[in-house]
Amino acid sequence: MEKELRRLRRRYQSIVWAGVHGVWVTGPHGESRESYGWQRLTGQTQEESLGRGWMRALHPEDRAHAEAWWDKASEQAASLYEVIYRVRTRDGVYRHIRFRCVPVRENRAVVEWVGTSTDVEQEWQEERRRRLLDLAAAAASDITNLEEMCQALADVVVPELADSCDVHLLPEPNGGLPYARTIVAERLCCAVREGIPRLPLLQEHYSAEVLRQAVGQRRPAHVSFPRGRPSFRYPEAVRTWIAEIGAHNVVVLPIVVEGEVAAVVTACVCGDRPPISPADIDLMGQILDHTHDAISNALRFRRTQRVALALQHSLLADPPYIPGLELVARYQASPTAAEIGGDWYDAFLSSRGAVKLVIGDVAGHDLAAAVCMSQVRNMLRALAVDRDESPGDVLRRLNTALGVLNGESTATCVLTRLERDDEGLWRLVYSVAGHPPPLLVTGEGEGRFLQDAGNPLLGLSHERPWVSAVEPLPPDSTLLLYTDGLVERRGEDLGDGLERLRRSAEPLACEPLGRFCEELIAGMPVAGEDDVAMIAVRVPPEGRNEGVTS
Hints:
- By secondary structure, the chain is α+β, with helices and mostly antiparallel strands.
- It contains 14 helices and 22 strands.
- 34% of the residues lie in helices and 28% in strands.
């Protein structure tokens, strides 16, 4: 019988040990009584693990949870308790260990717990890898804005893989290397673990070796240093932040687009957290690989956007000095839209001394729209000075040119000609092509829209004659040309926006012209989805013939 019992015990032990790395028994509140395999896993001695000494091998962030649970363990009604804790192994590395235990009760009271511990590091790492890659892929598929996409990716990295993660855009391909001694990086986003201050927002001039290495070699660069004391140069604000959080480990991963390093991801850990492991660096690389196409498209769009914006601004020159008139132009980019608009204004003198004012808007919000805007603007300039003809005839010729040279583009425009009549009074000759009408405000504060010269928008073929109209400009009056971003709101009739503009402009009739324009832009409840361009002219009081531009 005794031999049979020993054989049954060995079978039972074999079943228990199959698939587990440790078996243990604790008291009702987690105080260790017996353990098999724990000392081999952690390097603790039997004496060190007795009582709650075994908890000292848990990760500090997991230890608090374990202590809180075991304080109330005897009151738990659970018949099976399962949890995964990070355990420091005998070689100093933390691994994920699954703990399973069941209560042993006598007279309904828990007198001890019997449990097993199993190393599930590989299983946990694989599950985490799938989860983080899924999160990154979802972020890349749902977001097109570059800053929002990079922020979502940084939020995937923190706190799972690092305590801080930043994404920086390099304005120069490959950071300007090998010629640049300093790399300039524009931060797009920042994510930090709870309790850590954010890195100050600044345009950073880097000369850190770790960054130059990552950009120059186009592969991740990884460096460790004493806590809070990096061994390489960073901007002063960054060095102060590193010291404050006690960072000790940094990895920089380059984002390569079309063979050039266009951006870098910088992740760091601090405090008691172990250095970023090679496996986690590889996982960060996989996250970037999974989102590479989306990031590349967003970066290319950002570069195209900057080219379009530079082109657009280069064409919005200051109005010329016109004796006898005051001219002011203003342009405000959309505060919310990521696209570039096709809005423009222009002012110039014809060969016969007449003043030509233009406001226009090309359909579209991309580089193609900006390029088309430049073409339309330049063609209109050339046509307007080529012959001394009415604005309607100029727009007719422009429409013909657009149909021949760029048959798919459409645009709206107001072309005006300001001139003095035989009595020396100013008058306006104008033509409107599908654009909101000019607003005329008298010096007494009475406003009305000029709507006698309406034509279809440019780019459409039609047989109707192109019309112009003439309007006297009373002394001290203000003429305003503007784009639809000033008056249009989603879901609202355009007439409501025009009426709101008139009511807003009338009280400003006696304000200086610059303030007149600025107050309109600031005071109008614009939707913010489109750019706003405007050009205004003020006729001098009766008897004054000299004016200024601004």
